[in-house]
Amino acid sequence: MTFIETIGLAWGSLILNKLRSFLTTLGVIIGVAAVILMLAISAGAEAAIADQINALGSNLIVISGSRGIPGKLPTLVYDDALAIADNVKGISGMAAEQSAVDQVIQWGNANFTIPILGETPGFPTVRDVPVGTGRFFTQADLDRKNKVIVLGYKVAQDLFGDTSPLDQEIELGNTRVTVIGVMAPKGSVAETDYDNRVYIPLTVLYQRFLSNMNVQNRLRSIYVKAQSPETMDSAIGQTKSLLAQRHDVLVSSPDFTIQTQQDIIQTQQATTETFRTLLAWVAAVSLLVGGIGIMNIMLVSVTERTREIGVRVSIGARPIDVRRQFLLEAVILSLFGGMIGVITGVSGAWLFNETGAMRTVIVSWSVVLAFAAAALIGIVFGYFPANKAASLDPIEALRHE
């Protein structure tokens, strides 16, 4: 019997029991779709994280004090930021940042608690957070300790609605400040809502909100914008050497940390890698269950068709022909389920992404992997029933009722 004839016989046997054949493939369909969909969700999460981190500013270098340990007094000071701006080559901007305890902000009958940040004039450029209306504060505002404030977009909407907030005086804690600008909408980036915060000159933050605390001139972070990706490494090396010299520490054992966007992305990707591995195992279990389902149904089919097998062998069919037919039936079921699973998984990932339910990125190799796994499952789980069918004694098979 030729291979083509065997395929025809296998297909004919499956067609006779359409519903059972379809139900048998459900496990494989679910498993294949799960592999594609779960990896698409994982890849989408990674892409979303990367986009958010890149939105923090292009060619950004982030310097933190105390190695980023919570509760430790920051080791960075304002003079460090000035030294970086004056001495490090290959950078196009610098922004120094410190925060205070959230303060109550109020105007008229509206009031709520809001995060407050002290910044330097380079913040909008370095962090790629543009001003929507009005202006950001200048070096003159910083030097003169002018009591001015720039509102996040949501803060301005909550306080003033459709009324222009520019030149209005509002209460921030116990300090009266003048609104000089509103930031453009940016949304949340890396769990930070940029629209729900306010910015004041760093010197005003020190004078009015940190005067009773032991953090005068201390900084939470310094942000440096490299001129291009090519100057990043040089700028980082210069910054490390400069700060190590200023802090009297070794470059190999600093009291500060320097990160780039890629460092942060890689850290986040390490987390999503664990998540992706977990999802892959869940999908693999689904495929395994599908394979077991195929093997069980094929064993039932062998029992039901024992007399048929006896007749075929008695009129000249070889055991290898019987084995090939049943093995092909299992493989066809798996491939059919794999094909539907691929269509379901890709369609589901596309639908989630288009409807905005969650971001997904279809991973091309996951489609190939899932389909290949489906074929392998047909071979592995179909071999035992096929071998059992080929091993039947033809005389005993003919007597089977």
Spatial sequence of strands, sheet with the most strands: 3-4-11-6-8-7
Range of helix content: 55-70%
* Total discrete domains: 2
- Strand composition percent: 15-25%
N-to-C span: 27 Å
- Pick out the low-confidence regions: none
Q: Biggest sheet: strands, sense, closure?
A: 6 strands, mixed, barrel
Q: Which outline best applies?
A: elongated
Number of helices: 13
Radius of gyration: 33 Å
Structural class: alpha+beta
The counted number of beta strands is: 14
- What is the arithmetic mean of pLDDT? 81
- Helix and strand sequence: HHEEHEEHEHEHEEEEEHEEHEHHHHH
Describe, in plain words, how this protein is organized in 3D.
With 401 residues, the chain is of the alpha+beta class. It has 2 domains: 184 residues, no CATH class; 133 residues, no CATH class. The protein has 13 helices and 14 strands. The strands form 3 sheets. It has a 6-stranded mixed barrel. Strands 2-12 form a two-stranded antiparallel sheet. α1 crosses α11.
Give structural attributes.
401 residues, alpha+beta, 2 domains, two-stranded antiparallel sheet, 14 strands, 19% strand
Indicate the topology.
Layout: H1 3-16, H2 18-54, E1 60-65, E2 76-77, H3 78-87, E3 91-107, E4 110-119, H4 123-126, E5 131-134, H5 139-144, E6 148-151, H6 153-160, E7 169-172, E8 175-183, E9 188-189, E10 192-193, E11 198-201, H7 202-209, E12 218-219, E13 221-226, H8 232-247, E14 256-260, H9 261-304, H10 306-314, H11 319-355, H12 364-390, H13 394-399
Parallel strand pairs: 4-11, 6-8
Antiparallel strand pairs: 1-13, 1-14, 2-12, 3-4, 3-7, 3-13, 5-8, 6-11, 7-8, 9-10
Helix pairs in contact: 1-11, 2-9, 2-11, 2-12, 3-8, 9-11, 9-12, 11-12
